[in-house]
Write a structure and sequence with these properties.
With 575 residues, the chain is mainly alpha-helical. It contains 20 helices and 5 strands. A 3-stranded antiparallel β-sheet has the order 3-4-5. It has a two-stranded antiparallel ribbon with strand order 1-2.
């Protein structure tokens, strides 16, 4: 040791340094190295903080998605949704996929609403009351199918997706049953037997169609964001108007040639093709959550609706029922009233009624701007007023040529009402129960149609089909007047609708109670019923853990700095 120290001492003397000076030099070198390492350590700390921040952000996004059904990634600015470009490839595909089903479905509504009386008369069924009963029972079956089928569909998870199996099976079954109708009407001579068999087939076919219709309506909530659903409603109604226009032109020619049985074959094919195209184009996705409710809870839907929205949702359902009542009276009686009151051919009357669909396309863009500018509730009040004026004018007109002007008013009112009937419930249905609640909304809009059919049959039996003016009670004039009255009543109900409140906190609280969320959070699976209180507690806990982690890192860095300072002080004292 002495020898080594001596050599070292010689070397120090050789370079002109003492032992204390050598130690100082080593300390300065070490401090420089620490300074050079400090940025790298700080970079590591910054990266760790950034990683923690990103992880916390992902957790917050996940919790927000569980609680509200929307993701932070889908928002920008001050919580506004990111609206996809209308003419993008993705949007156009989704719009066509969700809308084309309505093309075939409108063949069914045209056959049953516009030409139903003519079809049954050519089949030998001329009793207006019994014909109204047949349509009424069919609509009841449609409602039951929508309620039960929608509840079942919300629980479906398959390799073909959630909605596709119900849409395909329901429409194919309905189409097959429609193909049996010509065999019954053409091969069975007895009127009573024909009526009974038609009643059975119509009940089964409409139940199957309803089980497909509710899942199809749920696609509006599944595929589109809130700001895009007006476009979805417009697309559905435009293709629906196209289907109705095509059906009217074909069916009018068939009716004029007394070949009404062919209508059911064409309707079955159009419905089946539209369903197949829809199923092939919609995304094959399944929800990532599981529902706590069971299929049998479908009978509790009215009670759940009241808990969910209370007076506001009830008013919306009543408005939907009034709209459906009025529009059903017009749809089932418009063409037949023109031929009966003014003695024109079916093709002429059909062309006049078809102009409503043309005006829908012409006024499409202005209508969308009106809805976006004044809001959906105010637009609904405007739609009720316009359609009410159309109904009153249709019931009181005495000259056939006026129909070419009246249909302008009817086209504007019809597209407004039809769009809002889809867009408004799509904004407020609970996540995970889309088909069930769309089925309930559809039922409230459809269960009045049987009553409307019976009421229309009664008015026609009292006043006759050829009554032109409303001077005497009954007939088509009073049918359309009652349709206008229902629209005016809807305006009064809409004045008490607090739509913004409904889609706010009450909706979020209800939806959180009804869902059972299954998601991965930081590698562990959390499976629990997520309500707003639990979600807020979890969020608070995560934020506290994040703050503790940051605090611990700060304390560790402070401790390291203090240790360095203490070491330097000790070295100075030793020197």
């Amino acid at each position: 040791m002495t020898r080594i120290a001596y050599v070292r001492g010689i070397s120090w003397r050789f370079i002109g340094m003492t032992e204390s000076e050598e130690r100082k030099n080593q300390q300065l070198t070490a401090s420089k190295e620490n300074k050079n390492e400090a940025p790298s350590n700080s970079n590591k700390n910054n990266e760790a903080k950034q990683e923690d921040k990103e992880k916390t952000g992902r957790i917050k996004q996940l919790i927000q998605k569980i609680v509200t059904g929307t993701s932070v990634e889908d928002q920008e600015g001050k919580g506004e949704e990111v609206i996809r470009p209308l003419f993008s490839k993705e949007m156009m595909k989704l719009l066509f996929a969700s809308s084309f089903f309505n093309f075939g479905y409108n063949f069914v509504t045209t056959a049953e609403y516009v030409y139903f009386w003519k079809i049954l008369e050519q089949a030998g069924l001329k009793n207006s009351t019994l014909n109204g009963l047949l349509l009424a029972v069919s609509l009841v079956a449609l409602c039951l199918g929508a309620m039960i089928g929608g509840s079942i569909n919300d629980h479906i998870r398959s390799k073909f997706g959630q909605r596709a199996p119900s849409i395909f099976l329901g429409t194919i079954t309905c189409s097959f049953l429609f193909l049996l109708i010509p065999l019954i009407t053409e091969l069975i001579p007895q009127t009573t037997a024909v009526f009974v068999l038609l009643l059975i087939i119509f009940i089964l076919a409409h139940f199957a169609l309803g089980s497909a219709y509710a899942p199809w309506l749920a696609l509006v909530s599944d595929l589109f964001r809130k700001g895009e659903r007006t476009w979805a409603g417009i697309g559905i109604n435009v293709l629906g108007a196209g289907g109705a226009a095509t059906a009217i032109l074909i069916f009018a020619f068939i009716i004029d040639n007394n070949l009404s049985w062919v209508i059911w074959i064409i309707t079955a094919l159009a419905l089946a093709i539209s369903a197949i195209v829809t199923v092939l184009l919609i995304p094959r996705t399944n929800p990532t959550y599981e529902l706590e409710s069971k299929i049998k809870d479908v009978w509790k839907v009215p009670k759940i609706i009241w808990k969910y929205g209370g007076r506001t949702w009830s008013l919306l359902l009543l408005v939907n029922s009034l709209w459906s009542f009025g529009s059903h009276l017009v749809e089932t009686g418009a063409v037949d009233s023109l031929t009966s009151r003014f003695s024109v051919e079916d093709s002429t009357a059909s062309f006049a009624y078809l102009l409503m669909g043309v005006y829908v396309v012409i006024f499409l863009i202005p209508i969308i701007r009106v809805i976006n500018k004044i809001g959906k509730v105010q637009a609904s009040m405007l739609a009720s007023l316009i359609y009410g004026i159309f109904c009153f004018t249709l019931g009181t007109m005495t000259n056939f040529k006026l129909i070419y002007i009246i249909t302008i008013i009817g086209g504007i009112g019809n597209i407004l009402m039809s769009t809002l009937q889809i867009a408004m419930p799509a904004d407020v249905v609970p996540r995970g129960r889309e088909a069930s609640f769309f089925g309930a909304f559809f039922v409230f809009g459809t269960f009045v149609k049987p009553l409307a059919s019976l009421f229309e049959g009664y008015l026609l039996d009292v006043g006759g089909r050829d009554s032109i003016s409303p001077g005497n009670f009954g007939g088509y004039p009073w049918t359309f007047i009652f349709a206008g009255i229902s629209c005016i009543i809807a305006i009064g109900l809409l004045a008490y609708v607090n739509y913004e409140k409904l889609i706010g906190e009450e909706y979020i609280r209800f939806r959180n109670r009804i869902l059972l969320a299954t998601h991965k959070i930081t590698g562990s699976v959390v499976k629990r019923e997520m309500n707003s209180k639990r979600a807020s507690r979890l969020m608070k806990k995560l934020e506290e853990e994040h703050q503790k982690k940051i605090q611990m890192q700060q304390e560790t860095e402070t401790k390291k700095e203090n240790d360095k300072l203490n070491c330097s002080k000790n070295d100075k004292e030793q020197n």
